[in-house]
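QA checklist item 7 of 12: single-chain prediction sanity check.
[x] sequence parsed
[x] length recorded as 195
[x] structure emitted
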Amino acid sequence: MPGKAITKVDTELAKLNMMFDRGLDLDNRFIYIFDEIDARMAENVVMSLSHLSREEGKITIIINSPGGSVNDMFAIYDAIQATPNEIVTVGIGEICSAAGLLLVCGDKRLASPNAMFMAHNVQGGIDDEGEMWTANSQMKATLVVWKMWAKCMAKHTNHTENYWFKELGNTVRELWLTTDQMKQKKHGVVDGVWE
C-alpha cells in the first residue's frame, strides 16, 4: 500500500529474514554459527537469542567455526549466559579458537563424532606482519583479554584458570582435541556425543 508506515514489527521481520540467511532456524529453535565470528555474526546470534528467548523451550546452537574476533565472541558468550532458556551447544566439524568458548558455555554441550576442538593462547600480541607489539598498552590489553578468556574457560570445563592461562599460554601453542578427548573428565569440554 503506497505511503504505508513501516512498523516495528515490519522492521523485526526484515531483521529476522536477514538472520535466516546467516543461520537462524526459527521453527526448530536452532541457531547456526558456521562462519568466522565477527560483528555481523555476533549481532545476528544475539538478536536470535533475544527473539527465541521470548518463549520457553531449549535453544540449540550448532557451531562449525574457525574462530574470529575476541570481542564478538564475548558479545555472544554474554548473551548466551544471560538467556534464561536452556542452551544446548553442539560442535560439529571444527570448533576452533573463539568458537571453543561458545561450545563449552552451553547448559548441555555435545560434539559430533568427528568434530575437532582447538584452543590456543591469545594471538593479539602479534600484528598482521607477524611482528610483536611493543606498546605496553596493547600488551596489557591482550593480557586482560587472555585472563578473561581463561577465567571463562575454567568456569565451564574441568581445567583450572591456571591451566588455560599459564600452561596453554606459555608459548603460541594449540591444543587439539577429538570428540573422545573432549568428553574426558580432565578436559570437560563436552558432556556427550551428538548423534
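[x] summary fact logged: Confidence is low (pLDDT under 50) at residues 124-134.
[ ] second reviewer sign-off
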